[in-house]
Amino acid sequence: MDSNVLVGIEGFEDAGVYKITEDIAIVQTIDFFTPIVNDPYSFGLIAAANAMSDIYAMGAIPKTALNMVCFSPKRFDISVLKEIIRGGIDKIRESGVSLLGGHSVDDEEIKYGLAVTGIVHPDRIIKNEGAMGGDFLILTKPLGTGILNTGMKADMVNGDSVKRVVDVMARLNKTASEVMLSVRTHAATDVTGFGFAGHLKEMIKENVGIEIFLNNIPYFKETVELAASGFVPGGLYRNRDFYREHVTGEVQGFLYDILFDPQTSGGLLIAIHPDDLSKFEKTSLDAKLDFWVVGRFVKAPKGKIILTS
Ligand code: CO
Ligand code: CO
Questions:
Q1: What residues does CATH 3.90.650.10 cover in the chain?
Q2: How far does the centroid of ligand 1 lie from the alpha carbon of residue 59, in Å?
Q3: Cβ < 5 A residues, ion ligand 1
Q4: Which ligand has an atom closest to residue 13 CA?
């Protein structure tokens, strides 16, 4: 392989990285999906924020984007597409990214997202592995969007809650990325389809373990009742079946299940040097970044997610 490929397809990293010069590498990613909320403008905001998230997770700065659209003008009014794109463009503008073009395909099922390119110094790429024993684990958005999206599809979520969860999903991980770059960050990733536990397992691999402070895990309060009423996405069960062997601790029920909820445009998981926690807290406060200290990496047992209260 070309030696300028710094991060390729083998490491389950968030995005690929290619070195252009000694000082600049490009970071590339693409993400798109079918509508998860009814309002097309909100869907556009969320899809664009989600597509840029992998760039932010690697400590890079997104620079350019291409629209990726599947839409059938025969099946839906063109105004729906205009609203989706308007949402995407508003988010692209907020991130300071330039939209260079895109591609659309006639497709009965709506899909929207972006291919995004960012830049980073080749020596300052933040990968999902690299956390060390003693590091604190920080999470920057509450969990539960998978359960809430399932409830919203069934019209079981009230308007205020819909607005709040849409706001969180549409929020860029830009500030979270900037704050993590202000401290000694050893590793980071974003929480998406594999849920908190799945993406955390990618961070620890067989290199370190982690103790999770269950009482500090943030989640949307609405999800407790929704999950009890059976509004649970299939992906949660698939994640739980797949990752449960790596999770230990005498915990069952909701607080256990929420760790496997697949997230849309979730927050960053950040492993920071233990001496930098207070600096992280102060910088977050100044930057108005929500965050929770949800765990601490341990040298052993390796590869395990240990639930503690
Ligand atoms: Co990711
Ligand atoms: Co992605």
A1: 136-308
A2: 12
A3: 14, 54, 190
A4: 1
CATH architecture for segment(s) 136-308: Alpha-Beta Complex (3.90)
Under a CB-based contact definition with an 8 Å cutoff, are residues 53 and 33 in contact?
no
Ligand nearest to the CA of 263: 1
| Pairwise CA distance, residues 13 & 130, whole Å | 12
Q: What is the pTM assigned to this prediction?
A: 0.96
**Contact in structure between 130 and 284 (CB atoms under 8 Å):** no
- Residue 11's pLDDT band (cuts 50, 70, 90): confident
Distance from residue 118's CA to the centre of ligand 1 (Å): 14
Protein fold of 5-120 = 60s Ribosomal Protein L30; Chain: A; (3.30.1330)
Instruction: Please give, one letter per residue, the 3-state secondary structure of 84-136.
Output: HHHHHHHHHHHHCCEEEEEEEECCCCCEEEEEEEEEECHHHCCCCCCCCCCCE
Residue-wise pLDDT for 24-83, tens only, equals 999 999 999 999 999 999 999 999 999 999 999 999 999 999 999 999 999 999 999 999
Tokens of residue 111, six digits: 């899909």
Contact by Cβ (8 Å): 174, 97: no
149-184 pLDDT, tens digit each: 999 999 999 999 999 999 999 999 999 999 999 999
Q: Biggest alpha carbon distance in the chain?
A: 58
